[in-house]
Amino acid sequence: MTLTDQTIATRRSRRRASSFVKAVLRFVVTAVTTFFGLIAVTFFIGRVVPIDPALAIVGDRAPAHVVERVREELGLNRPLYEQFYIYVKQALSGDFGISVLTTNPVMADIARVFPATIELATVGTLIGALLGVPLGVLAAVKRGSFADQIVRVIGLIGYSVPIFWLGLLSLVLFYARLKWVAYPGRIDIVYEYTFTPVTGFFLLDAAWQGHWDVFQDVFRHVILPAALLGYFSLAYISRMTRSFMLSELSQEYIVAARAKGLSETRIIWFHALRNAAVPLVTVIALSYANLLEGSVLTETIFSWPGLGLYITNSLQNADMNAVLGGTLVIGAVFVGINIFSDLLYRTLDPRTRSR
């Protein structure tokens, strides 16, 4: 290697290192700024909502001096900037206060109920991805055909029908009439006090411990709300898969593959779908994040003891510590998944690394 080649190689390595450092700095700045903005939004929502946290704790009939003492203990009599500083400090340490409804630390309540939401969203995303991707591929390959129209109508219904109406209708049909699924809830009362979960994910714990009767019961409870969420995920994933596949099928390498005599099945599933999978992974990740934050109505309808139902009950009981803590956790998870999907996209597609 000549001296010129060594110089060029050194410059290239320095540029790569500089690009990597800049990407890491952008990631850190984006994450910190977004999370700080999320904390600020939840703080000011808590101050704008016409609910006095002190009255929520002591009750409306408490003497004025008791209410004032509680307000002083909560720091509500301090200047707004000082309250915000205390709120940020506590939020960063995971301290969201005590829940008025359960009298437990809010973070302990969230740690108890959040696995149920993750389990529901995970099963729903699996259903949406396993059905949505093949349907999207079918619609793209059969563009303009009757099959394409059916897939597009399925997606349109998924976007248009209110989830609470579809949830109530599915309960009437599959539970009340056909008896195919279990009643609303997460587990039968027979197993509620005999089964001891370890991780909080009932399906995983039941399978790991070999309690297949519990696994079957939990599955009969989760399948209907998960299928409902999966249907809405399917509508989004199938639509995006169709769009990505149409773009890939019009590329020159597809024409070249057909000219070489490759089978249509190989071209679609091993060439076009492989290239479409890069942005599709990001779509599925964002769909998962949407299910995590958007399952409030589903959990309420099916009495699913997750974070969405916890926030709903807390809001109805003016438990603002729990509401803001749960909102902040969901927002942080959503932001984290968005950033992770962006990093994953850059990892899978080298063309975006230089941006």
Explain this structure.
By secondary structure, the chain is mainly α. The chain has two domains: 3-92; 106-352, MetI-like fold (Orthogonal Bundle). The protein contains 15 helices and no strands. The longest helix has 46 residues, at 3-48. The two termini are 31 Å apart. The mean pLDDT is 84.
Content of β-strand:
under 5%
**SSE succession:** HHHHHHHHHHHHHHH
Number of separate helices = 15
Number of strands: 0
Low-confidence stretches: none
Task: Assign the CATH topology of the largest domain.
Answer: MetI-like fold
Overall morphology: globular
Please identify the structural class as seen in this structure.
Answer: mainly alpha
Cα gyration radius (Å): 25 Å
Distance between the termini: 31 Å
CATH superfamily of the largest domain: MetI-like
Question: CATH class of the largest domain, anyone?
Answer: Mainly Alpha
* Helical content band: over 70%
Average pLDDT, rounded to a whole number, is 84
Can you tell me the number of structural domains?
2
How many strands, which pairing sense, and closed or not: the largest β-sheet?
Answer: none
Going by CATH, the architecture of the largest domain would be: Orthogonal Bundle
Transmembrane segments: 20-45, 120-141, 153-176, 218-237, 268-289, 322-345
Family: Belongs to the binding-protein-dependent transport system permease family.
Subcellular location: Cell membrane
Membrane topology: Multi-pass membrane protein
